[in-house]
Structures are given as C-alpha cells and as structure tokens.
Design brief:
Length: about 350
Amino acid sequence: MAKKRRFSTFSLSFLDIMSCGFGAVALIFLIIKHDVDTRAENLYPNLQAEVSMLEEEIKTGRENMVRARNTVSEVDQRLAEAQGMARTIDEDLTKVRANIASLTRDDATDEISQLQERLKKLEEEKKKLEEENRDKGNNVRRFVGEGNRQYLTGLKLGGSHVLILIDSSASMLDETIVNIIRRRNMDDATKISSKKWQQALGIVEWLVAQLPERTNYQIYNFNTRAHAPLVDSEGKWLRTEDKAQLERVIDNLRKVVPENGTNLYKTFISLADLEPLPDNIFIITDGLPTLGKGPPKKNTITGPDRRKLFEQAVELLPRGIPVNTILLPMEGDPFAASDYWRLAMVTEGSFLTPSVDWP
C-alpha cells in the first residue's frame, strides 16, 4: 500500500505566492512614490519661476555692486591724486614767491625772470585744475540730502529729452492700506506732508539735480491722467538752462495733493503729445495701476487685474526708450516689483527700490 504524502504549508507553491505578493507591494510603492514626486514638481511652477528670477536678480545685483565698488575706488584715487597735485602746486607757489621777494633786481635779474616764468606756469596749471574740477560738478540744480552719505543707484541719467513721471495717486500717502484710507480723509496740508509723498518729491528733485546742462526735460504727476505742474506746459519740452522756470516747476509740484487712483494707460498716451518723443523715462510710483482704458467694472480690483492693466499700458510705450522705475513700498501689491523689474530688463532701463531715507 502506497504511503500517504504529508501536507506542508511551506511548500514551493506557497513560497511562490508570497514572493509574488511582496513583489506586487513593492511595485505599487514605487508607482505611488513616483506619482507624488511628479505632482510635487508640477504643483508650484510659478513659485519656482519666481525663485529663479530672484536668484538672477541677486546675481546681477552682486555684479553691479562689485563694479560700483571698483568705480568708487578709482574715483577716490583720482581725487586723492588731484588734491595732492594741488597741494604741491600751492607749496611751489609759496616757495617761488618767497624766493622772488628775497632777491634784488641788481644781482639776480635772470633768476627773477626764471622764477616769474615758473610762477606763471604754475598759476596756469592751477587754473586748469580748478576748471576741470568745476566741469565735473555741472548739476543744473543743487540737491542736498540729510546726513553725510552718497548713494550709487545705477540709474541711467543721460538723454537729450528726459521725462519724469511721479505717481500722485492716493496710495502715495502711506505704505499701508489702513493709513492710506485714514490720511485720505484729512486736510490737504496733512496729505502733502505725508512722509512717503515727501520722499517721492525728494527723488524728483534729486533726478533733476543730476540732469546734464542743455537738456530738455518734462515732469508729469499722474493719477487718473497725467498733469504738468507748470501751467500750459503739457506736451512741451522745458530747458534746464532756465533755472527760474525749473524752480517754478518744483514749487508747483510741491503743492500737488495725492488723490484718486492710478492710470498708466492714459499717462502713457500723453507721451505722444511730446515732440520729439523722450529718449529716457523715469517713473516714481508705488505699485501697478488700478485704472485702465475704460471706467472700472467693479468697486474692487485684484492683483491679476492690476497686472492686466499694466500690460495694456506698457503696450503703448514706444520701442527703444529706456524706462527706469523707482518703486516705493506699498502693501498688498506683490506683483509690482517683478513686473517693473521685467519692464526695466526689456527696455534696457533700471529698477530701484530705495531705502526710506533716500535720497
């Protein structure tokens, strides 16, 4: 009689089943992990782009800082050399005058003539140095800031026809929305004395002071549309040589009261009235526009809405004109810095976010 086979749970078939089960679990784990990684990479593409842009901006800023430091070192060295040369010339002049005074015409006529000739050359050289130093300080208007400081901005201040646009909307009253609403209901004198608005006015004065001689310029303050502080000067270029007129422009600008919204679309339209077109534009603002081509369709406006209004306005800008933006702080407008920075890159202009005590 055949011997009956004994049953075992650890037979070859059981081990095959267990191996297949473990393999299926491992395969499912790998599939789930890969899907999580893929979704994590695709979840925040905008943030990754923003990080890349900020890293590029930091790299560019560091390179500009190095170049600025090198420039400052060269200027300081040249200034020290010029000052040393001037001191040497003054010492030589003193010695020559002393030698001339100690000599008499009878016993040293030739030596006196030589010393007088040398004195004449030294005086001419000193005069030449003074003229060179005077040519370096050719600002059309003096601007004195608070404290003992000097800023390297990287702003491109050249051009034969320079347009300065200063935002005079209600948001220029303060940095926070709560304080803007509070100051908006105060009297005009309080609005004009707002710290943020006074800083914007100081920036305009600093820019005007840096303009080269014999430059055409125009200054517009803008809110719902662009306004020229000087009466009957809209669409006209002014000359830096007319110092009295320039002072009237600044005085009238200091009387402007910040109010209403910001409309870059109508402001950029007004550029077409200038003949010829500007070859350098400066914008002093605190954020993206809140108004566009037509009246607003609702009482509130979102960040993406403001970006659309900005893009519509930028399309009106003539090609080939550098646009330099000086952006003041403003609560609740996170896209302003990146959009104005991109505008500066496209137009080969500059972008600056100054400290609260500049200029």
